[in-house]
Amino acid sequence: MVASSKVFTHSEVSAHNTSQDCWLIINAKVYDVTSFLNDHPGGDEVLLGAAGKDASEEFEDVGHGSAARLMLDEFYVGEMDPSIKSKVEIVDATLGESKKPKDKLPQSISSKFIYIAVALMIIVFGVGIHFLNKIA
């Protein structure tokens, strides 16, 4: 890690969005991943697609392990300015939505899907039995 941490704005980071100069924001930290483009297991296009932007959600969604998180240290260049809200935070505040990160599938929704799936299987099974009885 860099000894002294520089603080960046979104506009400063967004200027680094090419294959010759590729920066990402992950969990409010800024990383210069230009030298890692060719080595990224998911391909350079994944990183280039998020270049100059906040890639926190994508990074977490992929399920990077501890090795990837440790590897980030060598690409660290600074922090995001905490006093400047991102456009997403401003929109969320305007809409009155929670700023807390959204789960991929909240527990209440996932359990509802399980109940719906079981109910559909019972219905299909019942319809199948009904038609088999009519044939016999």
UniProtKB/TrEMBL annotation:
Record's subcellular location: Endoplasmic reticulum membrane; Microsome membrane
Assigned keywords, A-Z: Endoplasmic reticulum, Heme, Iron, Membrane, Metal-binding, Microsome, Transmembrane, Transmembrane helix, Transport
GO cellular component terms given for this protein: endoplasmic reticulum membrane
Keyword Transmembrane part of the UniProt annotation: yes
Signal peptide (residue range): none
A Pfam family annotated for this UniProt entry: Cyt-b5
Topology relative to the membrane: Single-pass membrane protein
Residues annotated as domain Cytochrome b5 heme-binding: 5-81
Protein name: Cytochrome b5 heme-binding domain-containing protein
The organism of origin for this protein: Perilla frutescens var. hirtella (Perilla citriodora)
Classification of source organism: Eukaryota, Viridiplantae, Streptophyta, Embryophyta, Tracheophyta
